[in-house]
Amino acid sequence: MKYNLFLLMLLCLSDLNAQSVEEYSARYSYVSDEISIKGIRKLEIIDNQYVMNFKAKNLLASMEVESKFEINDKELKTNSYKIKVRPSFVNRDQRIKFNYDKNVINSSGREEWSRDLIPNNKEIFDPLNAQIKIRMNLISGLDKFSIDLLEIESGEIQSNLYEISGKETLIFNGVDYECIVLKRIRETDSRETFYYIAEDLNYMFLKINDKGEDRNQTLTLLEILSLG
Asked: What pTM was computed for the model?
């Protein structure tokens, strides 16, 4: 079984403002050329840190992805990130830990690597909590910005540029919502990713389309289970 886990991690649906991120849970679907799966994304506060996880399954497999992080003075600090996939022969389990005392990031499991943290406390995001930063930037009024994303397979840090390309109306739960269309640009990647974000739903991601030569993927919001 081989499929892209990155897009599965891209939906965040919290009630967000510049200072806080509230707890939530939501259901969504992921469809690609290779797989179709439904899951629940949940964000909660445990032991004074945010814990965001995604759990999904179909008849053949199940997966869980989790990010732990903190937000202080509008800055996000990643603590850990992990992936767990069953059946185990898929060999996709991975755990990444940020050690700020030793200024190092370590990965164990399928992908084993170690790298130094970037000096001057520069923010580094994982595929889950990067979406929190995107929404914080949009709420702050930015229409073009960059985010440094950790590549979980290699440990490299890639700069991702995001820019508003227009607006489009989408239907969710029988209601029309005008969405911001945000495009992701990467100099080292020819793929195109578009995010459809509803301002009237507190900047929720209603849909994400990811297109490339090797695969096409779509993530769609199905149901908001709880907010706050």
From this structure: 0.82
CATH class given for the domain over 7-227: mainly beta
Dist. CA 130–CA 172, nearest whole Å: 24
Asked if 183 and 197 touch (Cβ cutoff 8 Å), the reply is: no
7-21, 29-43, 46-60, 130-144: which range is least confident on average?
7-21
| Residue from 200, 137, 190, 136 nearest 167 by CA | 200
Q: Give the pLDDT confidence of 141-193 residue by residue, as tens digits.
A: 999 999 999 999 999 998 899 999 999 999 999 999 999 999 998 777 778 89
The structural domains of the chain, with segments of one domain joined by +, span 7-227
Contacts of 211 (CB under 8 A, 6+ apart): 191, 192, 193, 217
Contact 182, 164 (CB under 8 A): yes
Q: Are 172 and 179 in contact (CB under 8 A)?
A: no
> Where does residue 95 rank: exposed (0-12), middle (13-18), buried (19+ CB within 10 A)?
middle
